[in-house]
Amino acid sequence: MGKLQLRLPDSIHNKIRNIAKRERVSINQLLVNSISNEIIRYETLHFFQERFQAFSEADFLEALKEIPATEPAEQDKLN
Asked: What letter does residue 30 receive in the DSSP assignment?
């Protein structure tokens, strides 16, 4: 497991300490969770940006033609 030394302004450190206390987790666990969430957000954003680059509107419209023109099931209808 890696180790990281981080210098924070006192105001941010105090906020992190207070949040960790309210959530009943260690500061370390709060920061690991926060960083993990940010990594997931970053990777998700880049996944969709890459997929968008390969998007073809013509292929999409062609695929839509394969969907049968039927009424939705009763439980799927919006009121």
From this structure: H
CA distance 64 to 66: 5
| Helix ranges restricted to H, the chain | 10-23, 27-53, 57-64
Radius of gyration of the chain (CA): 23
pLDDT in tens, 5-54: 999 999 999 999 999 999 999 999 999 999 999 999 999 999 999 999 98
| The model's pTM | 0.65
Name the token pair of 16: 């992190």
Cα angle 21-17-31, degrees, rounded to a multiple of 5: 100
